[in-house]
Model the fold of this input.
Amino acid sequence: MSSLTASGFAAVPSAAAPQTTSQKTFATGDKTFLLNGKSFVVKAAEIHYPRIPRQYWEHRIKMCKALGMNTICIYIFWNIHEQREGVFDFSGQNDVAEFCRLAKKNGMYVIVRPGPYVCAEWEMGGLPWWLLKKKDIRLREQDPYFMSCVDRFEKKVAEQLAPLTIQRGGPIIMVQVENEYGSYGEDKAYVSDIRDTLRKYWDTSDAKTTLFQCDWNSNFEKNGLDDLTWTMNFGTGANIDDQFRRLRELRPNAPLMCSEFWSGWFDKWGARHETRPAKDMVDGIDEMLSKGISFSLYMTHGGTSFGHWAGANSPGFAPDVTSYDYDAPINEYGAPTEKYWLLRKTLQKYADGKLPAVPGKAAGIICIPKMTLKNVAPIYMGVDSTAESRDVQTFEEMNMGYGSMIYNTELPEISEGSMLHIDGHDFVQVFVGGKYVGKIDRVKNERSLPLPATKKGNVLTLLVEGMGRINFGRAIKDFKGLVGDVTLTADVDGDELTWNLKDWRMRRIADDYQTARRAMTTPRNDVALASNTPSAIGYYKATFKLKKTGDTFLNMETWGKGQVYVNGHALGRFWSIGPQQTLYCPGCWLKKGENEIVVLDVVGPKLPVVWGQNKPELDKLQLEKSAKHNNIGDKPDLNSATPIAKGETKPGNGWQTIGFSNAATGRYVAIECPSTHDGKPVAIAELYLQSADGKRLSRDGWDVKYADSENLQGNHTGDKAFDLQESTYWQTEREAASPHLLVIDMGTEQTVKALEYLPRMEQGAPGSVKEYKVYVY
Ligand code: GLA
Done:
């Protein structure tokens, strides 16, 4: 008979819960973990089953074993298992129980992190998009609807995995409660509810699972529950003793574990590829092991965020690339790197015997000759549903999780110089009468675009592509499509007039292979043609023959932006801006004989050609030359930086000098402006920096490194703040969110002691900076 929990729910199928006298155990003991009663150091390798083709799961597990690890650490990604509300899938690529059994077969223990939120640079941090159909939902809080969905999901996860805990003869030693909740909020009641849900479904009176919580050392006290094990997350290069200092003070007898030791880092579109030194990573692990500290290496093998599963970082909107290589010891396609060999040497020191031999490759590498994708269907052939409404609707309101939407309405008559304002997520291309006008890119914090003169009845088309939903911080409630009013403003005889555009037609284009296939095979029809998008934007198809299969890297450099499907498998997003220019195509998804490739390009290619190369290209930026300076990769992360000066300026015209209490040395000066004296967009006419002896530094060689917002209508770019013209000025856009940031690159390192600032020359100094923070780095 199955054991019943207090709630009466039979969490664990009886067949899978043999109780024998030699029952195995895992527990938190005195200053150590205890495996079957004996001291045990967890050496865990984090790898993610959806980021590895199922055919390669065992190979990657063996690679971790041969590296010297004893445990595999996994998240459970809610949104791949419950893609439609209430419909669960734990089969094939989603068969996480099989993944755990493979770990066990290879002598590895497993740590399970079933969220419900996981972060992980994964779409919405693992939460299913359909939660957002309830507009006012409170995610990761005690919202009754959210909690009931969580309960249903955790019950299903436990049905799959609770039979595999160590007490029941399986490999699972620990289960995590939520994920780094401290960077989301302070809510012990919610975290306790998640704990209780896991207990309800994982535990029986005679078999209790070790539950733990992970967080940053600066955060963990906010939500730490007394009855859970606490572990810390930190990266390569961190001061390890310092990371555990507070935990040691609070719980002197607790075992220590770094539950995410970051081996590298993730990449964002438009920013350079991230790497971290191998030596720092290996030294950190060596130090932990020499002190008996357990760890999980995040990531040991990053893999790939196939299809539309890559998330986006915040603050701001910084979508992650498809590759999740992470500069990890085992690279994206499963091969050992320099980090692997160095780490293996170190882990060998701490191994009981000789480490197993490193397995050979799971697949060979092949090249595929260049092919042209000649079979073309315009994007509107992918439309599967159309709706009309007075106001724009989001993807969620249109019942679509991922993809693009074409929005059409009619324009009023306006002479040249009108501005279109939207709140659009994420990549919006604007057409008037079917002609391309420009784009509004959320990555660059853009919200508006000047329109040409329009005639009454001209069709306005907004093609909106959604990228990954934000996976970090409060911004995870990330609706897609147009999310607010669409307005036009224009100066008519000295008055600013605003039109709120209404009466929209929306066409939904889901991002999946079925849609792409249908688009390629359906005869065109006139209704769809009315959506007014140029035909270069669309689906491209070709077939190619292979004599042998193998892993390859599809070069997408000549394409714009979109998705690739090979033999029905979604490989992921590409975007010409880089840094990723190739997509990993696993050999196990290719066939001898004929193969099919379909590309959806929402921008349109320069050349519709693809080839498979034998190496990935993960670090090639192809940024557009734009008048703006808002490339995300140039934006400094000031979250943990200390300003050199901070305060408020006086209102009114004229120069002001802001002295720093200490001289500071650096190449870049960042000026953050949270507010202005009159609430108008920030404006700075001129800036100088003074050296330690009070002299103005030369501004020759100065450049704008980054400006979050620049009003291009009047050509108010960032460089206007140091162009020696007191009448020109940097000005932010009207609707751009504060705080504003201007970063000046002085060309070389300089020592600075003060900043001189001149607001606009006009009466009342419109837009003069009120609060400020200055950073030098
Ligand atoms: C945190 C999260 C992980 C991941 C890493 C960064 O530690 O818990 O899911 O997002 O950051 O890669």
